Amino acid sequence: MSTPIIQTFPLGTPWQTIDPFLFSVYHLDHFPKGNGEMGPDPSLLKGRNLGNDFDPREKWRMYHGQTIPGFPYHPHRGFETITIVNKGFCDHSDSLGAAGRFGEGDVQWMTAGRGVQHSEMFPLLHDDKENPLELFQIWLNLPRAGKFAEPHFKMLWHEDIPVVQEKNARIKVVAGNYKGTHAIDPAPDSWAANPDNDVAIWNIHAEANSEYILPKGSPDANRVLYFYKGSEIYLEDRKINPNFGIVLDPSEDVTIQIGDEIAHLMLLQGKPIGEPVAKYGPFVMNTDEEIQQAMEEYRLTQFGGWPWPYPDHVHDKDKGRFALYPDGKLVEKS
């Protein structure tokens, strides 16, 4: 009897991915009350290991910020970042002069292309209660033809992102086509911009003690389902525990039986780019020589420099959700 399951694997940090995806990480941090200056109220001088952002023993992590959680300015070249903030907020600033505060379900899609610097800080806006943060960051590769595309910054506001409500499940369609419901267009030079590449990013919440059917995709796509929170699920009578990834045959529907808790699932899917990948930290090219060239160019140009006053730049505490684009266009949300 055939099975749609090709492989299962435990979820580490980051998650294992398959072409066209390069990297995916999930953070759930129970940040404490703020100190009035968007940092944590508890002292950072009492045993915190600053920068150890992937330590699962900690309820909350300071990442690489010294006063405010987050990632101060750093470069990228040759791929895209897709940042999904389900809880909490992210303050974005970049070398293009773009900026924004997004969260509570918003998604940022940034094409690094030929090179960009940005910072991603997580301001603790509440001083009277905890500041939970739930965040996914996904790296989607660019093909050789797109490695030097112009950098692009796009916001997908949660009010506009399609959500499909089925009998037993709720599906947030960040990218792709879910049973005829199409996501917002991605960045223009993205591998996801061509529907023939069948790129899908779906955040699925399936109800406890129910049945959910994952619809099939293109037979040429790579498909991975990440089970990151819940009790257990059963795929074709095979039990899968939480914190496991499942590589699936995309050519057939998959029936999933949900255990005693809501199953939180992330699907990443897409036709492979099928080109050589050379990686060094925040640079992703096709050859090691191109990586060396990227590092040298960054050393000489800083990808346009840093127009903000601090490497860990954040916006005013009372600022709402907004996006300031490189052309000066400002979009403000309630």
TrEMBL record:
<dbReference type="Pfam" id="PF05726">
    <property type="entry name" value="Pirin_C"/>
</dbReference>
<dbReference type="InterPro" id="IPR008778">
    <property type="entry name" value="Pirin_C_dom"/>
</dbReference>
<dbReference type="InterPro" id="IPR012093">
    <property type="entry name" value="Pirin"/>
</dbReference>
<dbReference type="InterPro" id="IPR011051">
    <property type="entry name" value="RmlC_Cupin_sf"/>
</dbReference>
<dbReference type="Pfam" id="PF02678">
    <property type="entry name" value="Pirin"/>
</dbReference>
<comment type="similarity">
    <text>Belongs to the pirin family.</text>
</comment>
<feature type="domain" description="Pirin N-terminal">
    <location>
        <begin position="62"/>
        <end position="140"/>
    </location>
</feature>
<protein>
    <recommendedName>
        <fullName>Pirin</fullName>
    </recommendedName>
</protein>
<dbReference type="InterPro" id="IPR003829">
    <property type="entry name" value="Pirin_N_dom"/>
</dbReference>
<feature type="domain" description="Pirin C-terminal">
    <location>
        <begin position="202"/>
        <end position="304"/>
    </location>
</feature>
<dbReference type="InterPro" id="IPR014710">
    <property type="entry name" value="RmlC-like_jellyroll"/>
</dbReference>
